[in-house]
Amino acid sequence: MTIADIAEKLNFKIINEGEMKTREAKKVFCCDLLSLAMSKLPADAAWVTVMGNTNTLAVASLADAACIITAENVCPDENTVNKAKEQNITVLKSEFPVFETALMIDKLINA
Q1: CA dist., res. 55 & res. 101, Å (int)
Q2: 55-108 pLDDT per residue, tens
Q3: Mind listing the domains of the chain with CATH numbers?
Q4: Hey, is 83 helix, strand or coil?
């Protein structure tokens, strides 16, 4: 399922579009500890976190994550948004807690 489909169906706010219209999320991953995410984040995953700083972009890029979704209405700072634009990384925002956001995504991906 494309990130654009996920964003539309779950009413996530688009912070940075990136490749959301063509990139697919094949699984979902939750983690707020960047060092752990760096070693465990699968490629093509929708990464749900409350971390909204530029370090998340580096981890997502290294892991080839499909997108970053900040939960709990966390909005990345302006520097992070600008970097996401430069690096063409899709960043979305959910109003729901991490676990609920991940469950909603998982249901869509595995429907």
Answers
A1: 21
A2: 999 999 999 999 999 999 999 999 999 999 999 999 999 999 999 999 999 999
A3: 3-109 (3.40.1390.20)
A4: helix
